[in-house]
């Protein structure tokens, strides 16, 4: 299984479709785009209603997949976004943040989502929740609570970025890649989805170049041996 490279729907100022159109035109490296959804309000709903046909069409034309970062504010919005997107777009994977303190009802809703085969759980700085499908965020790991082997063994998606001076989502640098490799070993190159969470176009270009250099040095050399 070859690894798929992707980035987020927040590379340039603009809507989901505007970013997807720009990314697929500007970059040839990416196999998927992660649609970022931090809430699910009327504006977000209307935007998807306006753009869903365009998003479907360009995905077919450019042969790209979509993943989704589900809302982070509350479980009601998570469920509403999930139901809408499942009905209206072909989504390959959903990234979900774990919830710590919440009501019993919310716990039930959260655990009901976990049974869906496309749901994956991301590690946060303050909280790591193990699941059968996990998302490893290198920034959250470096700046916060560390993941353990059980979490690593279930990784299906990696969020890669640079981490410098206590800030994540920076331009990728060698030290962060070495840190990620130390934690993930060859899973860094084998996890199905590798998403560049870098929100600056120029830094994204440089980060892709560094990734290829690192992969050629570490993984391809290791594969030959």
Structure description:
It comes from Fervidobacterium pennivorans. This is Sugar phosphate isomerase/epimerase. It is built from nine helices and ten strands. It has helices spanning about 15-25, 40-60, 75-90, 105-115, 140-145, 150, 175-185, 185-190, 200-225, and strands at about 5-10, 30-35, 65-70, 90-95, 120, 135, 155-160, 160-165, 165-170, 195. It has one domain (about 5-225): TIM Barrel (Alpha-Beta Barrel), CATH 3.20.20. Helix 4 (about 105-115) links the parallel strand 4 (about 90-95) and strand 5. The chain is α/β, with parallel strands linked by helices. Helix 1 packs parallel to helix 2 (about 40-60).
Structural key phrases:
alpha/beta, 47% helix, 8-stranded parallel barrel, 225 residues, TIM Barrel, Sugar phosphate isomerase/epimerase, two-stranded antiparallel sheet
Which stretches are poorly predicted, pLDDT < 50 over at least 5 residues?
none
Query: Could you tell me the number of beta strands?
Result: 10
Structural class: alpha/beta
Tally of domains: 1
How far apart the termini lie comes to: 20 Å
- Percent strand: 15-25%
Q: Characterize the overall form.
A: globular
- Describe the strand arrangement of the main beta sheet, using strand numbers: 1-2-3-4-5-6-7-10
Enter the CATH topology name.
TIM Barrel
* Main β sheet profile: 8 strands, parallel, barrel
CATH superfamily: Divalent-metal-dependent TIM barrel enzymes
| Helix and strand sequence | EHEHEHEHEEHHEEEHHEH
* Helical stretch tally: 9
Q: Roughly what percent helix?
A: 40-55%
Task: Please compute the radius of gyration using only Cα atoms.
Answer: 17 Å
Broad CATH class: Alpha Beta
């Amino acid at each position: 299984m070859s690894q798929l490279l992707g980035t987020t729907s927040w590379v340039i100022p603009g809507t989901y479709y505007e970013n997807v159109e720009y990314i697929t035109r500007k970059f040839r490296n990416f196999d998927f785009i992660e649609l970022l959804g931090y809430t699910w309000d009327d504006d977000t709903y209307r935007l998807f209603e306006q753009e869903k046909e365009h998003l479907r069409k360009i995905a077919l034309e450019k042969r790209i997949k979509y993943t989704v970062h589900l809302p982070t504010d509350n479980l009601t919005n998570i469920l509403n976004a999930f139901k809408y997107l499942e009905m209206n777009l072909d989504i390959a994977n959903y990234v979900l943040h774990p919830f710590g303190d919440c009501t019993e009802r919310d716990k039930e809703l959260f655990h009901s989502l976990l049974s869906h085969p496309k749901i994956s759980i991301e590690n946060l700085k303050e909280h790591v929740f193990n699941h059968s499908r996990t998302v490893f965020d290198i920034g959250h790991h470096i700046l916060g609570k560390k993941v353990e082997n059980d979490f690593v063994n279930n990784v299906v998606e990696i969020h890669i970025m640079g981490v410098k001076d206590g800030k994540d989502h920076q331009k990728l640098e060698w030290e962060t890649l070495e840190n990620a490799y130390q934690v993930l070993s060859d899973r860094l190159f084998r996890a199905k989805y590798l998403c560049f969470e870098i929100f600056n176009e120029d830094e994204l270009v440089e980060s892709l170049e560094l990734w290829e250099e690192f992969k050629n040095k570490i993984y391809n050399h290791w594969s030959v041996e």
